[in-house]
Amino acid sequence: MSRTQETIEWYLNLVKETIDNLDRTEIEKAISAYMEVYNHEGTIYIFGNGGSAASATHACGDFLKGASFGLEKRFRVMSLVDNLPALMAIANDVSYDDIFIEQLKNFIKPGDLVIGISGSGNSNNVVKAMQYAKDMGVKTISFCGYKGGKISQIGDVVIHSKALDMEVAEDIHMMVFNVIKKEVMRQLHGENPSMGDVYDNRVN
Q1: Is residue 61 part of a domain?
Q2: CATH number where 165 lies
Q3: How many domains does the chain have?
Q4: In a designed cystine with 121, which of 21, 90, 144, 190 is the match (CB 3.0 to 4.6 A)?
Q5: Radius of gyration of the chain from Cα atoms?
Q6: What confidence score (pLDDT) does residue 198 get?
């Protein structure tokens, strides 16, 4: 086996092992939290740094369109990483550690859901925002990796990728967001959440 093949096998096996170690009960709790905020017409706020920021935007888009399409009542979801002028102003004038908490101060209310994503679980800006939401009595979900970090002690629900690897954490987190979306779509749209016919008939 070549060194390249060894890397491929090592990484894929690590992902498989991490999936096997995922707490399914916590995923069920996350699905319930999504349905609860939907039923009460609350708003979901999602945020993270780097790859986790990309996951936040991806997960937000999936619920603004995918899970909401065709519904009269739709999901209210906001990614706090997407307003670049606001992020830069807060980072420059206050602190990078405050880029998420300062936005939450403008928006969150009882019945909302706050989701923080941090591979290490210790990103200061995610920790501060999660703790603020907790103090305000708003339900929180922590997506973390490695040993869980500080946000694993804050979240009402904890999605923990236990591999000591950042890329695996990012993979697992996005996979769980997709699982949540699939089950939410099943509950709201019926037994065929894949929209296969739509995608099969696309021109591009």
Answers
A1: yes
A2: 3.40.50.10490
A3: 1
A4: 144
A5: 17
A6: 44
Higher confidence at residue 125 or residue 200? 125
In a domain, 152, yes or no: yes
Domain span at residue 74 reads 3-191
Q: What is the pLDDT of residues 95-108, one digit of tens each?
A: 999 999 999 999 99
pLDDT in tens, 33-50: 999 999 999 999 999 999
In a domain, 201, yes or no: no
Give the contacts of 202 (CB within 8 A, at least 6 positions apart): none
b vs e for 21-34, b when ≥16 Cβ sit within 10 Å of the residue's Cβ? Answer: ebeeebbebbbebb
* β-strand pairing of 43-48 with 113-118: parallel
Contact 44, 115 (CB under 8 A): yes
Q: Are 107 and 46 in contact (CB under 8 A)?
A: no
The pTM (predicted TM-score) of the whole model is 0.92
